[in-house]
Give the backbone structure.
Amino acid sequence: MQLNSLTDQSIPFVLAKLPDPVVPGESCPRRTRLQIDFVLLAIEALDLDASEGMLAVARELELQKIVKNRVTLWRLRNTNPNRRFNQRRPLSLEEAKALVAIACYLARQLTVPIRQLLLASDQLKTQQLSPEYHFGLANYLTRFRSHFRSRMNLRRTGLAVYTSDEKLNELALNLLGQLLFCTGTAGMQRFWFSLFDGEVE
Amino acid sequence: MTIRRQYSLPNCTLILEGLSTSQSTGGGRPPMTVLIRFECHLAGLRKPLVGGRNLIEHLAVAVSQFAQEFLSGIRRPAQTSFNGQVTSVQLQRVDLNTSRLVVPPDLLLNPTAGATSPDTDSVPSAATVEIDLSTVQAFDLVEAFDQLLSDTQTLPDLSLNFSPLSRKYSTAHQSVVGRSAPAALGVTSLALAAVAFFFIPVPKVEEPQTPTPKETSPARTGPGPALPEGGGHDSPPGRASRAVFASAPGPDRLAEGDQTLYSQIERAWQTQPRFYEDLPYQVGVDRNGRITGYRPVNQAAVDYTHDIPLLELLEVPEPGYSGQKPLALFRVVFTPGGDLKVSPWSG
């Protein structure tokens, strides 16, 4: 892969592979903001140090201009319309790309536990046992449910379906599968394009 | 000289045999430009999928489409393969843990056919291959293909190519979760409201009066500020009912309804408008000023229905409200400038 960053200093190299979709207002639709935040939530449920990790990765990928510090990261993630403290601000395409890059980079570092937990989930399902029987899986699901309930505005009609532990577990496992797809060779591009399915002309 | 390339993952190995028609050697790996034989080994399949160019192209399209569907949760319509034909391979999610791959026999060769035979002379396979894959197995298949397609020295005319799904396909192909969420919400809210209202004692108040079109509660005398209870914040089902009035609201009550509805929506509308024209909706409210339904009036309103907060404000009417029609209708318009206009619906 050639290093083309010298041709345009303003775009961090890691984001150059993510083209701008044609969306109105050049900012992210609701579903995009929601999905990015949920994926980051799943990462935090997997790895206790993930939130520090996000800032460290932002520095490593030279994304500090976009994700300056913890407060900025919090603001960007709170553009998710389902958050309790939803920010009345748009999420720009560049900011979304930065979050996507951070998410995929962290996901790749977590490839082994992601695969292990998905395999465990499969085996338990085949044996018709609940996820509680696998320590790592039970921990992931418990942390995910706890983060979700403390951060999301549960009175939002879009979240009404997630009232039970069972439904939240399903969401958590679905996101775990999506994280696996983020770890691939083309994971970052795939994830990026998927965020705009149904949102472009 | 035959070139052999292999892309291996724990649950999937792709093996390609082919030739290079390129003159340049470049000092590196020679580019494989002609495919003679393609094998796809999958965990769970006793024999590999064997075929030629057709198989690899159809699989590549189906696998890539599947990966995007997995990530977005939105199903795509059948896409064309590289040579303009619709892919006949199916790879679709069946449930949370399982995806099903179906490969029709016309793409397959008998796995025991000789490696050097061109496609048309090899023994075709008789049967459709169908296999269920776990999420990890399905990912390994996707990743193997992504590695193959990213390799510019192997079949360089095949490459990764994605684009987001167009909006016109998404309404017809919305995920099952997306379609069932409003229904699930309705049933859940109604059940909760029914349980909560069951415990509220019957109030000992005067009997409702005979309904007349212009009758209003005596306490409300004209257009004024929003109701003191403030219809703006989310009210969970089961809250104690507000003052009851038996008739359709008169013009004064409608004016107050404007204010309550306006406050509700204005507070919930938290995002910058991304649209360029006014979005009009017909909004129905119940006797307590809560939104029970809405309908986009034009195509733009349909297109941007996810950008406005009406779905989030939607509430199930209280039990005993048997009418299909809302109590009052309003015209609500969201403007690109961020203004909200609420007025009684006059058709």
Summary: Chain B touches chain A through 55 residues (CB under 8 Å).
